[in-house]
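Q: What structure does this chain adopt?
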Amino acid sequence: MPHSTVAHNVTIDGRQVDVASLETIDFGRLATKEPAEVEKLLNASKMPGFFYLDLQSEPGKQIVTDLPDVYALAEQYFDQPLEIKMKDFRAGQDGGFKAAEHAGAFEMLRDETTQGKHVLPKIFDDSATLLDRFSSLCHSVNQTMLSCLSDALRLDDGSRFENNHRDGKPSDSSLKLIYEPTRVKLADNPDTTHTDGGTLTLLFCEQWGVMLEHPETKTWAYIEPKPGCALINVADSLQSLSGNKLHSCRHRVAQLLDGFQKRYFVVAFLRPEKPV
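A:
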């Protein structure tokens, strides 16, 4: 049965908030394609299209081990003066640094990384191995989930999702470091409601930072950070490729309370091949 997405209210500093109840999928069991775990993945991808992925056992354990170092790199990078970060800006191109009001992002395109064409910022000179490993592991996790979903939907060889996500074919898959601090006033938090345009999104954030819209009731709920787990969501391309069997859920960046606080998101995007 689909998992209920609003489980309970919690009170934080006197404020009651709805918290989403999401399924937790064990990646170790998914990697060996245990039927019960694959079925859980399918159900969560249908409704609500968001779930936790537990990476605390092999083969995902290295991601959890590396994650604190990746957060530290993100902080070092975004603490640099704007004029330094702007050296990584690419006008009219994907990848590199992008500035936004009170925020910013640095994106490493997988194609450039695997082809040895990506020039990392100088501050990452000693961390290229870490970033390459982390990016590759996250990409592998996304590809494993994609294969399991093809199995669960009993797709024939010609219809499998992997056919649109072949290694070595051009795509915009990437690893992105995002700086999105909380605002001094909760009321100043902008409305960022959207769906993701790719295939699968694998996200890490240590703080409360995401809300989802219940696909059926259209009510909103916060997603609680869960240590040792990535937050996964189905994106638009996968909903389309599945014939709308899988759901790309509306969501937004959010905060619980007033008060400025640094906040970082580490996100691996799996995106389909580019048309020839």
